[in-house]
Specification:
Blueprint (H helix, E strand, L loop, with lengths): L2 H7 L16 H6 L5 H9 L15 E9 L7 E4 L3 H9 L2 E4 L3 E10 L4 E12 L2 E13 L8 E4 L3 E2 L4 H4 L2 E9 L5 E12 L4
Parallel strand pairs: 3-10
Antiparallel strand pairs: 1-2, 1-4, 4-7, 4-8, 5-6, 5-9, 9-10
């Protein structure tokens, strides 16, 4: 597997003919059509309010957690992406997923400043260097919460593979949060393995 293959696999799918608009700050969006009261109320419900102090430095988005949920799992598996020890652990000590069950991946994240649009989560799964799966899920467009509240996005459910062959290896995953312009907001690697039971 080459770095070029990884780079291409982790690019967002682009709709032919679609051109993202120019980026605007939250204050610029807040001042657009300011005389329209219903639009102003709608923007306020999204946290787009003029005059809110937002630090414009640092990352636009901070991914907080990676989450795995399943009807067969009593509590979700939650990994703190900003904890170096946990991040290192999920690279070297694979997360155990029960074979043949419905499960879903999700993330929680904060928008720190600016309006983000066309943002999606992409991950590519490889086993023994061969790509076996790719997940691309649209997150959508978000503004910063005035109170710094996090957004939570759970992705479509899928069924984990089953059988002795599926259980015999470790799956490596590259996860990215990117926008339509290809700007990478967050990137991390992790691994999982399949077993007869959740661990």
């Amino acid at each position: 597997m080459s770095n070029h293959e990884d780079h291409e696999d982790l690019k967002p799918t682009i709709t032919p003919g679609y051109k993202p608009g120019a980026a605007k700050s939250a204050d610029e969006y807040a001042s657009l059509d300011a005389e329209d009261e219903s639009l102003a109320r709608w923007k306020a419900s999204l946290g787009i309010v003029p005059g809110i102090e937002r630090a414009a430095d640092g990352p636009k988005v901070t991914v907080l957690t990676l989450e795995l949920r399943s009807p067969t799992l009593q509590n979700p598996l939650i990994v703190d992406i900003n904890n170096p020890a946990q991040l290192a652990e999920i690279r070297t000590q694979p997360i155990v997923i029960k074979e043949g069950v419905e499960y879903s991946v999700g993330i929680s994240f904060k928008v720190n400043h600016s309006i983000i649009s066309g943002v999606r989560y992409i991950h590519v799964v490889r086993r023994a260097g061969v790509k076996v799966d790719k997940l691309e899920q649209m997150l959508g467009s978000y503004s910063p919460h005035a109170e710094g509240k996090a957004y939570v996005k759970n992705f479509d459910s899928e069924e984990s593979p089953s059988g002795m062959i599926a259980r015999s290896g470790i799956y490596s995953v590259k996860s990215r949060v990117v926008d339509d312009d290809g700007e990478v907001y967050a990137a991390w690697d992790w691994s999982f393995k399949l077993a007869k039971e959740w661990n």
